[in-house]
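Reply to dn_fold:

You asked what the input looked like. This is it:
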Amino acid sequence: MSEITTKDSGLIAKSELLDLIQKEELYISPLLDVTQIGAISVDLRVGTDFLASKQGRDEYIDTTNNDTSTRPIKGHFSESRRRLGESFLLHSGQVILFSTLEYLKLPENVYADLSLRSSYSRIGLNLSTLIQPGYCGCASIELVNSSNTTIKILSGARLIQARFYKIPDNQEYFGKKRKYNCQVRPVSSKANEDNDLTKLIRLNNS
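and this is what came back:
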């Protein structure tokens, strides 16, 4: 087996990021400020469309099946929109789903690991997600306020850091069926649509 070199895989630094962006092999738009591109990451901004978790009469969110007689998962979230520069509140223990302001198109041999800028994680916000190789669309973000204090955030703020990693083989993003494809607005969880749920229920019933 041949050895994989850093040219074939690994974290992509600024010089190569700029080269990929200039060639539009890695597409990120809009980039409102050149300082969004750092030594090993690109800052991404909060978009304008949101889904916020809300307290309802149901005791729990059911992820175990897609029975239409139960309340759908999206019914546990309220939809809203903000202008750039307009604020929104993230209450203690609340989950907010939003899409990045930036539209991205990744090469088929590059994935992105997303994390919060440390300034925001230090006040109790949490986020962990990645973008698959070949993905196109706005990045879908799940943000949780794990602090005991409500936090105010601006739409358009640089909240997220994206680190891009090259892998040795191309991946065909559209070669398999996916639950979330090319989103430009946040989409609620489709955990209850996992194919193995029906098998697990049958196994339990048997």
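Helices lie at 14-22, 118-121, 196-205.
Hope that clears it up.
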